[in-house]
Amino acid sequence: MFKLSEIKELVRLVDKSTxxxxxxxxxxxxxxxxxxxxxxxxxxxxxxQTPVVSQPVIQEVPQTLQKSKVEEQSVEVNKSNxxxxxxxxxxxITSPMVGTFYxxxxxxxxxxxxxxxxxxxxxxxxxxxxxxxxxxxxAEIKGEIVEVLVEDGHLVEFGQPLFLVKPE
Length: 168
Fold this sequence. Notes:
This protein has two helices and eleven strands, in the order αβββαββββββββ. The chain is α+β, with helices and mostly antiparallel strands and 168 residues long. The protein has two domains: 4-49, no CATH class; 69-167, CATH 2.40.50.100. Strands 4-11-9-6 form a four-stranded antiparallel beta sheet, with no helix packed on it. The protein has a four-stranded antiparallel beta sheet with strand order 8-7-5-10, with no helix packed on it. A hairpin with a 2-residue loop joins strand 1 and strand 2. The longest helix has 17 residues, at 69-85.
């Protein structure tokens, strides 16, 4: 299985290189990292997890999923909000992985944080679910939540801004 730190390092290496695509298989898990043709953002993707076998297994890698128009529109709205806020020297809390964003620990529960809440470095601000693992995301900065940029239950990309924080 791939560790998050390993995936992050591979994404950085592919981003800095002239490679357009990288596929790695490790302990039955296959990781595919591709540079999109029109965008410089790299999206890591676990393609398929297979049991470890003594003989090689040939598998076809599925095509990368296309973003829906709704997702593209929500990303554009979030980017415009981000552009307006950059002048205020706000800190962005970004997603360390691809997954599903959850603002609360369970459905119907109070959110971890909301606009106006004060956070410390170790304050859990959300959960990003990836491969059925719930990953708690911490603020990593002391300040006040100015804006939540993602709606609960939406898919987030690696490096996508999740929150804007006014540092103290």
